[in-house]
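Weekend entry, working from home. Most of the wet-lab plans are on hold until the incubator is repaired, so I used the time to fold the two sequences that have been sitting in the queue since the last round of cloning. Logging both here for the record. First:
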Amino acid sequence: MPDESKPYHHGDLANALVTAAIAIIEERGVEHVSVREVARRAGVSPGAPFRHFPSKSALLAAVAEQAMERLSSAVRAAQAPHDDDPLDQLERIGLGYLEWAQDNPAHFEIVSQRSLVGLEGRSRELNDEIRTRMLSLLESAKSTGQLSKDADIDTLVLSCRALVYGLARMLVDGHFPEWQPNGNPAQWMKRSLALFIGELREHHREPSQPG
């Protein structure tokens, strides 16, 4: 039977189903999402979700798209429009990612598990936009001498991604009390990212040319 205590607004069933799926992920994990349970939580019949999502995979893809929309918004909001330092802007992308993961752990879970849902369509487009922005900033740092001319940009962008993803994974999985029992995890993540960017500045910059 539908859960009549949680009716959806007429014409907004798709969003209600996505919201219900996110609630299940937050409570029990993405592996426990089922179309039947999502329908129950949204207060509709078991067959109603199929008007919008023909399968569980399609529903999870919609959750992933919402996740990527929010991640993209967080990254854009973190950027400083008048800051011309590309490594500063790169650090801000990382901060935006970490804040998004902290505020949206269920979204982080869904886009982390490629075996359950791949990034396609709009989700892939948004993900690629972030990667392209990171590559552009690193190329800019290279062209201005902040990074050496032989800096491996592809490896650097992968390293940046690995750092913020790893920190976010530790946060969502609750590892910080074991590794840094003192202080706020958000501050430790921020310090780790600042250390990484500082190392880029110190050890990968173009050597000064003799006069």
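Second, folded right after the first finished:
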Amino acid sequence: MSVQTVSSTAVAHALTALRANRPLVHCLTNEVVQEITANVLLAAGASPAMVVAMEEAPVFTAISGALLINTGTPYPERVAVMKACAQAANDHGVPWVLDPVAAGATPWRTQAIRELLALKPTILRGNASEILALAGSGKGGKGVDSTDDSRTALSAAQRLAEETGTVVCVTGPVDYATDGKRTLSIAGGNVMTTLVVGTGCSLSSLCAAFAAVEKDPVNAAISACTLAKYAAGTAAKHAKGPGSFHDEYLDALYLVQPEALTVGDAA
């Protein structure tokens, strides 16, 4: 299956639409990354909210532009809320993104993620080890960190997309978004992102934000990846270390003009 590089024009249009509409993104994310997730969405031009009580979360999902579900710190009550919100999103035509953090790490976590995946998210966004584990081709990474390269997970991502009917976005040195028939890719970014907690999780929130304004989920996912890689590459030029990279990354998301969103050639 051929892989196409991302269209900078399509990404520019998507970012313009995101900033014009400022979609409300309901984030059911893990406790470690709530602040950076909210700040990344704000900097990019979206509006974050984190409503977690079972009594109101599904109702809030129904009035949101998109839903993010992140399994970084799961427990039974939170998983139940996630399932209810995923169903509410499906019932009300709200796009939603599943970030399967540490899929493959433990049987209970992996089963919970598979049950969420069965509810058919619009986009599944994970690192290579997580995608390989869900595709039955790997055992997961080192905790929440990937031990595999995104390029080695591409065929598994394409197969998983075809089997589930979900667009699969596997990220790493090269990011891929695929529906099993069409695959887009983008390269670039900077290794410094691996030293700042929440950059991957907040990327999934960007996927949700773009899915709220871009009808094609493949384009939505690759637009989010392109924006994140551009911001990471820009931040690395000015940062002295992980602390300053964090701030420079947020600034780059805020300051980038849509027409500037071009990143290196994909491999």
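Plan for Monday: verify the second prediction. The chain has ten helices and nine strands.
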